[in-house]
């Protein structure tokens, strides 16, 4: 058994292994998605380790590069994402070996931490390898009790119409002590506009705010899921009223049963009218793993949005 770094010519075999091990499920296993996720990422190409036995790739472990920002401090991070072990090789410790080997490589690169949102099946394994539970992301829900019968349908968002605002957002220094995703040039375009998994739409005045959402079909009806919200210094009461009016119009046109927002900023810091239901800690469960940092990660002032943590 050999553990080695992946090279570009390994991609067809990696995709085949992902399909064999995981199936297609809701996330397609394709070279298009792989390239968007692991090559086009503005934070850098993903580090990938493979397990190979007699020329056959039997295991893959991938971390997605990410950056957070707190004030002027850049925190180098990775998100533990794609992993697959061939069915004939499962139960032999390959997943643990690949994961810990990849962490050792990241130490020499100056990576500070790894984060992810594991499911209940994989959680115990991560905890044994040094991950810690931060907790579940708060979730705010507003039910629309009378779903509109409007025959209108909201038009697909024209992202090119707010290209100047996106540039402005990505070059703004937000005055907050919270740790948030580092909005490097091209991040919003990569994360939301070219994402091959979901179509994202937005509400904006093209000048002072940008709310990003997607419509999700569910068992209890259509959901308008707010994934990110950015506001600039000239966002005021008039802009707040405009935002909420436009949001209600979209809810009606799209026949949305409920609207959700999962993140660490509520109340006055989130000028979106979300009703009287209390905030619930039922969002994605976040785990953290130290790599280069020595301080307690759990106690740091995280400011995640759902866009940072959505499964993709």
From TrEMBL:
Gene3D superfamilies: 3.40.630.30. It holds the Pfam family Acetyltransf_9. It comes from the Bacteria. Residues 1-152 form the N-acetyltransferase domain. SUPFAM superfamilies: Acyl-CoA N-acyltransferases (Nat). InterPro entries: Acyl_CoA_acyltransferase, GNAT_dom. PROSITE patterns: GNAT. This is N-acetylglutamate synthase, GNAT family.
